[in-house]
Amino acid sequence: RNLKPHCTWPSPAVEIFSVFIGREKSKAIQIHGSVEVLIDGEVKYYIFKREERDALRLQEHVNTAPILDGSRLFENFSSLGMKFDIKDVDGRLAIKGFVDFEARVLSFNFYQEKQLCSSILGQNGFAAVHYSIFSDAVLANIKVYLNLKRGGVDVYPEVVSGSLITQYSCYDYSTRYNKDYYRIVLFKRSKEDSVQPSSN
Questions:
Q1: Where is the DUF6598 domain (predicted)?
Q2: Enclosing domain of residue 187
């Protein structure tokens, strides 16, 4: 996952792990709208953005929306915020609200290097964003190469499925909750949703 923009020295950073969409009985739903990350009141990037015609379908009992890119380094900012505006195509669910912190609050040790969660209550549902604030973070670029052999011969796979998930060594992942909501999903595909790997 890329931390953008980045510097050659450690800087404060936010890592947004997951956005949980709570609704009645975790029924299947199609959602659209946006979750924006704001620095000093200005939109810097989106962690979720879908038009109604391209609504995201969450199957029954699937509660997390995929994160576009939840990692960013920041310098010299006075506030960090997240703006939620999520609806479902049937008009039953509507979640609007803000999560907002002043930089001086985020500088307290109480908030740094912790597994944090903020919730936004909406109509017929809620959103919960799971994230961490780091006082000193660095850029990490990850590239995965597949090297498969069958009978001693290199094999190039036609399709790939499975998962690639990262986690922080300083965090406790002994509970199912922390495993589900405070890890970074770099790749996750079922056999039915497999993809063709890049030749690069």
A1: 14-194
A2: 142-200
